[in-house]
Write a structure and sequence with these properties.
This protein is an alpha+beta fold. It has 2 domains: about 90 residues, no CATH class; about 40 residues, no CATH class. The chain is about 25% helix and about 15% strand. The chain has 4 helices and 6 strands, in the order H-H-E-E-E-E-H-E-H-E. The protein has a 4-stranded antiparallel sheet with strand order 1-2-3-4. It has a two-stranded antiparallel ribbon with strand order 5-6. A hairpin with a 5-residue loop joins strand 2 and strand 3. The longest helix has 14 residues. The radius of gyration is 15 Å and the shape is globular. The structure holds zinc ion. Zinc ion binds next to loops. The site of zinc ion (ZN) has 5 residues, from loops.
Length: about 130
């Protein structure tokens, strides 16, 4: 996927507008990572960098200090969909469903449809791009 200059600017602005407690290094990894805190799942913290990288802190329960970086479309989309609930501006970066897209099978599964669990297949978008054959 193409991470745009616009996306970078939105992320930088959101980070710049964070209240000071969000920048407190004893409470978040925002300053260390230079990334926006999107949310916490179980024990891991999820961040989005202005360059479009997803950084997960403590994904491995046994290594809470280790950062894992993802840049694949599914992980980035999940963070945008999740993050747009907390930072509505991120919603601008969620791609519009293209003509010919099909509903993802997750939409028929309540736990996904309600947004309690984010689907990796569609990146929580709820649709899949038409397959190119
Ligand atoms: Zn799905």
């Amino acid at each position: 996927m193409v991470w745009s200059r616009r996306a970078e600017q939105i992320l930088l602005r959101l980070i710049g507008e964070l209240p000071s407690e969000q920048l407190d290094p004893t409470r978040t990894h925002t300053v260390r990572l230079g990334a926006l805190h999107i949310g916490t799942s179980m024990w891991a913290d999820y961040y989005l960098r202005p360059n479009g990288d997803v950084v997960v802190v403590g994904e491995d329960y046994d290594h809470p200090e280790v950062d894992t970086v993802y840049s694949d479309r599914s992980n980035v989309m999940k963070l945008l969909v999740w993050g747009s609930k907390r930072y509505p501006k991120l919603g601008e970066l969620i791609p519009v469903r293209p003509p010919g897209a099909v509903d993802c099978p997750c939409r028929a599964i309540p736990i996904f449809a309600e947004g309690k669990v984010l689907c990796s297949k569609c990146g929580a978008l709820g649709w899949l791009a038409p397959t190119v054959t």
